[in-house]
Amino acid sequence: MLINKDLIITDAEGSNELDVITLLAQRAKSLGYISEVGQYVEAVQKREKEFSTAFGYGVAIPHGETDAVKSSFLAFCRPAHDVPWGENKTAVNLVFMIGVPKSQKSTLHLKILANLSRKLLDDTFRHAIALCPTSNEIFKMLAELEREITIS
């Protein structure tokens, strides 16, 4: 299962992208999705240095390639305050972190990224997820996204 209700964090305290990435990685580790927090965070930071995953609209989609990912996942964080992201310090308030085992990187990773990006270009979806009062409602929205990924 790609989406797990326990991988959804709202009103998280974090003053920078590393805080948010680490928080999500720690949660993924505690749920058995990754084997090593430091290795995964390092891979995500390496990807961020190549090109920021903040793509506008207050959204970032951090991801990294590493064998530390044991099982594919999509984690979500809505920080309590905008987080400066990347070299340009883009204000981010919706973070979707992707983890895919290195062996599945080329196919599943691209499928998740493509479907998620398409959804996030929809103003209605972005605003709805930004304003969802509970993680249960966010989970329902992301579960729908997971169905679309498995169908396509």
Automatic annotation (TrEMBL):
Q: Does the keyword Phosphoprotein apply?
A: yes
- PANTHER family (UniProt xref): PTS SYSTEM FRUCTOSE-LIKE EIIA COMPONENT, PTS SYSTEM FRUCTOSE-LIKE EIIA COMPONENT-RELATED
Catalytic activity, EC = 2.7.1.202
InterPro entries, sorted: PTrfase/Anion_transptr, PTS_EIIA_type-2_dom, PTS_IIA_fruc, PTS_SugarTrans_NitroReg
Broad class of enzyme this protein falls into? transferase
Check the record and name the Pfam families matching this protein: PTS_EIIA_2
- MF-aspect GO terms: transferase activity
Cross-referenced PROSITE patterns: PTS_EIIA_TYPE_2 (PS51094), PTS_EIIA_TYPE_2_HIS (PS00372)
Please give the CDD domains that the UniProt record associates with this protein: PTS_IIA_fru (cd00211)
Q: This protein is called what?
A: Fructose PTS transporter subunit IIA
* Domain PTS EIIA type-2 residue range list: 1-145
Query: What domain of life does the native source organism fall in?
Result: Bacteria
State whether keyword NAD applies: no
The stretch of residues making up the signal peptide is none
Keywords of this protein's UniProt record, alphabetized?
Answer: Phosphoprotein, Phosphotransferase system, Sugar transport, Transferase, Transport
